[in-house]
Amino acid sequence: MFDPTTQDKLFNEYITPGVQAEIKARSKLWDMIQKSDKVELGGLYARIKMLMAASQAAGARSDASYPSAQESTPAEGKVYLKRASMFTLKFDGMAMELAAKKGTPIAPEEFEKKGIFITVADDMSRQLWGDGSGWWAQANGAGSGATALILDHPRYANLKYFAKINRIIDGVTGSSKEIDSNKMTAFDESTQTATITADSWTDDAYIYNEDAYSATEGAGLGEMMGLDGIVRATDPPAPNASAGLQGLLVATYPEWKAHVKSNSGTDRELTEDLITAGLDDSMEYGDTSVLLCTLKIRRAWADLLTAYKTISNQEILWGGWQGLPFLYDGKRIPMVPDRFCPDGRIYGIDEKQLVLFVTDKKAQVTWEKGFGANSAILQKVAGYNQYQAEGHIFANLGTYLRKAHVCWQDIDESSYA
Q1: How is the chain split into domains, by residue range?
Q2: What is the pLDDT of residue 13?
């Protein structure tokens, strides 16, 4: 007989590690960035203390007097925890009861079949590459009672990794929700068109996952901050625009920005000197540990390595991830491709200056439990021979020093299909 009250141990032994393993296997950033569970005020946010400017009370003297005392310029930021992923697993009661006859209350294969772990992993990757705004596309043209929603994005030509079938979306213009909880039933890559239930929207409406939009920054509001919001020379967009990244505005703290190597929107060829010039800037403040790039830029760099007969075209690892080497002052920096990296860009990051705040470094995943003395993770669906489990991951990405990171933009990828 299947008994849901005995399933807690199974979830902790099989399912939680399965979620973690899937995310780590599909998300390079979640896998490699250090985790911290040092959060305050009931777990609402984490504090980050940073040095914005060092004291200059030092130097040679022509007399016996010491320099006038100065204080370094400190700053303290807040990284609010987000409901980064909330997910529901659903199971057929008959299948579980039959599995129990074989000695396993719930066959671990059942969890993999649901595909929810892949969905969670890919969406976490998307957020960690984003700018903290939460939107992942815009409407390319208005619609009135229409079912064809054409999508575009200023940083992605193909939205196939974002526009997933059965994804429920909202469309927002200003603070008004125009598309409300509408399911995508198909997506055409060739035209970047999503099929939805008949709805209406204005041109350039921002597309979010269902209920992900937030007009304000705070604990549990909106999505996680990502690299695109951190590795830039300006404040991130709304909802962080008014207060700045981690509550610090660039106008108030001019040093609170990353290095950006752009070409005013005009694509240019990838060269060794282009990357070296950016590293010259960021290495003054940090130690670039990886160059994250698109799949096409990885191919372009591989071609350059092949042309450099004095440089071997061999792979180098970033943790368990394979990349190609970039030689900088005798250091071999791995260039690692990521599906979610924006088009035409390379991000040079110092992973020691990034931190993922979570509620529990070990578990990372929390399962909800039912009410009553026999509360269990797996709950029966009223009126059905079905069971469901609900889980979540609360997290957010922060940085100690933005100037330790660099982004190269406007790199030509047109030669690579």
Answers
A1: 137-209
A2: 64
